[in-house]
Amino acid sequence: MEPLITTATGREIISRPKKFEWVALIALILAATALRFFRLDAQDIWGDEAFSIFLSGQPLAQIIAGGADTHPPLYPVLLFVWLRLVGDPSASSGAFATRALSALIGILIVPLIFILGKRIATARVAWFAAILATVSPLLIYYSQETRMYELVTVLALGSTILVLGIFPREVGSGGAEGQGREGASLSFAPVPIRYFVYFGITSLAMYTHYSAFYVWLAQNVFVAWLWVKSAVLLRHSSLRGAADQGQGVKRTVVESQPDAAQQGAQATKQSPTSNFQLPTSNFQFPISNWFLLQLTLITSYVPWIIVQSGFLSAISSARFDEWSARGVELIFGKTALAFSAGLTLE
């Protein structure tokens, strides 16, 4: 629960620390807005931006038909709508007007990365990440470009936050997320709602840029780790319970609960990532639901794969000797290198 203060009239208001957090976050968002809109039209529209504007100027049916662009169609469709709102991109304010869409999208990264930081770590880490996102030259650069990169970043962050909401989080008396208290209860999100929202946002990310699949893969690795961890803990709990019963161990509720001093000592030792501590009894990990959700995601992407298969095959054949296992290895190898150590190691 959020920290509250009760006034003399019985009215509850948000405490000063929470108010300060909101004020500071709004200040960061305003700073991010200023940095992304500063000299937004200082440079002329360049090749890839011009192609995005050209494609989004075509009839909507042609944009989503496939074969016109290497990338999926969500950003061109969004830009199609945006251009109808801001007017002719060839006007004197064309560069500013068309790039403003990416700038507005890029601003959303700051609050999203703050939320993600609080979910997986501590408030200090969340603030540090939000400040870095605000002043990041890379994020500012792509916020000032009429391309899809900021959109896929925002959608990937939203998708990852939802993954953390689908699975159990530790909730205790230590705060809204219950960090820092061992043995706290576990809170589950309303599964159908979170699943549907996750499916929608992740699908949009995949239909924005192919790099979203790397985020999707990382999410599944994380869920697999949770699944294995829950199985190990459940097995350990079962064995310990059987041993206790065999020895005739009896414990009262008072004896099994640590006192306030012990809870405080445990709080100092608990890892900041304890949000993902799993239960050790009477719990079934929703792996089947997650598997069906991922299968539905892949199925929803099949139409685009069918539409683009011929076009992408022709593109890859132009870059490599043939569309073969070696070509696939080069494509994914170069992409993995770009997203890890960097292309400077080539």
Fold blueprint:
Layout: E1 4-6, E2 12-14, H1 16-37, H2 47-56, H3 60-64, H4 74-86, H5 94-107, H6 109-120, H7 123-135, H8 137-143, H9 149-166, E3 169-171, E4 185-187, H10 191-206, H11 212-247, H12 253-256, H13 260-269, H14 287-319, H15 325-338
Antiparallel strand pairs: 1-2, 3-4
Walkthrough of the structure:
With 346 residues, the protein is mostly helical. The protein has 15 helices and 4 strands. The protein has helices spanning 16-37, 47-56, 60-64, 74-86, 94-107, 109-120, 123-135, 137-143, 149-166, 191-206, 212-247, 253-256, 260-269, 287-319, 325-338, and strands at 4-6, 12-14, 169-171, 185-187. The strands form 2 sheets. A two-stranded antiparallel sheet has the order 1-2. Strands 3-4 form a two-stranded antiparallel sheet. A hairpin with a 5-residue loop joins strand 1 (4-6) and strand 2.
Key attributes of the depicted protein:
single chain, 346 residues, two-stranded antiparallel ribbon, 15 helices, 3% strand
